[in-house]
Design a protein that fits this description.
Helix content is 75%, strand content 0%. By secondary structure, it is mainly alpha-helical. Mean pLDDT is 85; it is low at 1-8 and 39-52.
């Protein structure tokens, strides 16, 4: 009898490896099928639930951001588009978007980015018990004091929209600014940045507003911003403008800030000194900012007109209603300051005179 000494053992190492590989692949395939089936079920459940509550959801997120539409969303998105259009005077990359593209594509994208990053910040800002109690008096229509959502659901909504804002920013631009806004929002709302010192409060406000503005510019431009000398100088000037004048927003709510123990500028140094400081600084920057761009007297008219209006109103009209109206003029004044690079570009082209 001849004995076959060949490798006919079905349990040798090579066959075992093949069997293990087949088993592993089949196990992974079945596991993925189970997970995908569960994902589809959960997805459609959420979709059906969202569809039923979509009008309420839209209303809720709108009410969270309503107060800041005129102070953050529109001014900073307008800054983004105007400055992106005049990018060459800041030594930034230029974009070849057509006129319709700027209006119908780039501005809506900048507007959407600004609002997407503002929403979780605003929810965070309105989330504490003190904020809810204050809003019961001043803004009872907001989602938390009105009972549209509770704190637990608002927290979940905030976290989801922080993630959503980061995803949006990683897709269309402004990712660095978005991440920085998360840090600033945490410092401002949870780290005492809004309450303990008016210097820190103004500093965070300046950094936050410029993060919204530069992020909107990057989205409108469609390319990452560069760190250039002219850009750094202009951003530095804008930071100084905002840091020294943003207390305008605190003049009309000193009663609420006092109840919450906030150390805002009017409460620390007094109402009258704050008003005189603000009036003088606004007038000063109404002249200095056009000078930075070497613009003529005509370019100074708009910032100076609104600067005078703000100064006069700040010193002579001291009711909460009048101060709230003055803050609206302040935001228009800021847009006139934001427009100076665009005016420079339209008047003298890409040639810089700074």
């Amino acid at each position: 009898m001849q004995i076959d000494n060949g490798n006919t053992n079905p349990l040798n190492s090579q066959n075992l490896s093949q069997l293990f590989s087949i088993y592993t692949k089949e196990h992974i395939r079945l596991d993925l099928q189970r997970k995908m089936k569960r994902f589809h079920t959960e997805f459609y459940d959420v979709l059906i639930e969202s569809r039923c509550s979509m009008p309420m959801y839209i209303r809720t997120i709108w009410l969270f951001t309503y107060s800041d539409m005129k102070t953050i969303v529109f001014p900073q998105s307008i800054f983004g588009v105007m400055t992106a259009y005049a990018a060459s005077v800041l030594d930034q990359p230029t974009a070849s978007h057509g006129a319709l593209s700027w209006v119908l594509v780039r501005y809506p994208l900048a507007l959407f980015w600004t609002w997407s990053n503002l929403l979780p910040f605003d929810i965070f800002n309105q989330l504490s018990e003190d904020a809810i109690e204050e809003d019961r008096i001043n803004k009872p229509w907001r989602p938390l004091p009105s009972g549209i959502v509770d704190r637990e659901r608002a927290t979940t909504l905030m976290l989801r929209h922080y993630i959503f804002a980061i995803i949006v920013s990683s897709s269309i631009g402004g990712l660095h600014q978005s991440l920085f806004l998360v840090l600033l929002g945490t410092w401002y709302n949870a780290g005492g940045g809004a309450d303990r010192s008016f210097v820190i409060r103004n500093l965070i406000n300046a950094a936050g507003i410029l993060s919204f503005a530069s992020g909107a510019m990057e989205v409108a431009l469609g390319t990452p911003l560069l760190v250039t000398e002219t850009s750094a100088q202009w951003i530095g000037i804008l930071a100084s403008v905002i840091f020294t004048t943003i207390q305008t927003q605190d003049l009309y709510d000193t009663e609420g800030d006092a109840c919450r123990g906030r150390k805002t500028m009017p409460l620390v140094i007094g109402d009258s000194p704050t008003r005189w400081w603000t009036a003088v600084i606004v007038l000063m920057f109404s002249i200095l900012c056009p000078l930075f761009w070497s613009l003529g007297q005509l370019a100074c008219v708009l910032p100076l007109v609104f600067g005078v209006i703000i100064a006069v109103r700040t010193l002579t009209r001291r009711t909460p209603e009048a101060d709230r109206r003055t803050f609206q003029f302040y935001n228009v004044w800021m847009v006139s300051i934001y427009s100076l690079p665009l005016i420079r570009y339209l008047v003298l082209g890409s040639e810089k005179g700074v």
